[in-house]
Amino acid sequence: MSSPAWAVELLDAVCTDAGVAPPRLLWRNRRGEHSTGVTRRGDGLMAVRAGSDLLDQRLTLLHELAHWLSTPARRRRGQSVHHGRQFYAVAFALYRRHGLTDADALRLESARYRSSLRHAVALGVTGAVEALAAHRSTIRARPRRRWRVLVPEHSIRLERDGRWAVCVTCRQRVVGINLARIRRAHRPVRHVLMTAAS
Ligand SMILES: [Zn+2]
Ligand SMILES: [Zn+2]
Q: 108 CA to middle of ligand 1, Å?
C-alpha cells in the first residue's frame, strides 16, 4: 500500500529541515495498536508497519527519522549504539517539534524501550523524572522470582550435541555472542546454571 499523505509530508518536512535526502518509505499495516519500524541507511530505506493508534504511527515514523538523522555511536568493540543518548536527543526534539507532547512521547517511547526513560531524564524532558520513578516502583512491586543454583559454577567445556554446542558439565546450550566469546577466550570462561524455584 502507499504511505498516507501525512507521513510523506512529515518525512519531507523533517528531512528538509535537516538538509538531508529523504529515504524511500515503505508503509504496511499490521494488526494491533502499536506500530513498528526499521531503517536501513545503507539501502536508503525506511519501513513502517502501522498499527491502529495514529499517535503511535506518528511517533514510530519520527523514531525512524531520528535514526535517519543520527549516525549510530560506536562502542569499544565496534557494536553500534542505536538507542543511546545522542539518538534520544534527536528523537525527543523531533517528537516535540512535530506534534507529540512530552507526556505522550515518554509513554509511547518507553513502551518500546524502557531505557529511553533514563535518557529522557538526562535530556531534561518534562515529566521524565516522574515517569522513571513510576516505572521503578512498578518493578519493585512485582513479585521477585527466586532463583536457585542447579549446577554450581564451573569452567565451560564445549561439545557438539546435534547442531548445538553444549557445555559438557551442565548440558546447557551455548549460542550466539556467548559462543563466540567462549571460543575466543584465552582462559576458560566459567558459568553457573540457575533455575527458577517454584
Ligand atoms: Zn529504533
Ligand atoms: Zn555448564
A: 13
- CA of 163 relative to ligand 2 center, distance in Å: 17
Whole-structure pTM value: 0.71
Residue 194 scores a pLDDT above 90: no
Lowest-confidence range among 25-29, 137-141, 150-154? 137-141
Same-domain status, 22 and 83:
yes
Count of domains in the chain? Answer: 2
Instruction: Report how far ligand 1's centroid is from the alpha carbon of 88 (Å).
Output: 10
**102 φψ region: left (φ > 0), alpha (ψ -120 to 50), beta (else):** alpha
Domain span at 104 = 5-141
Say if residues 113 and 105 touch (Cβ distance below 8 Å). no
Question: Which residues, 6+ apart, have CB-to-CB distance to 153 below 8 Å?
Answer: 190, 191, 192
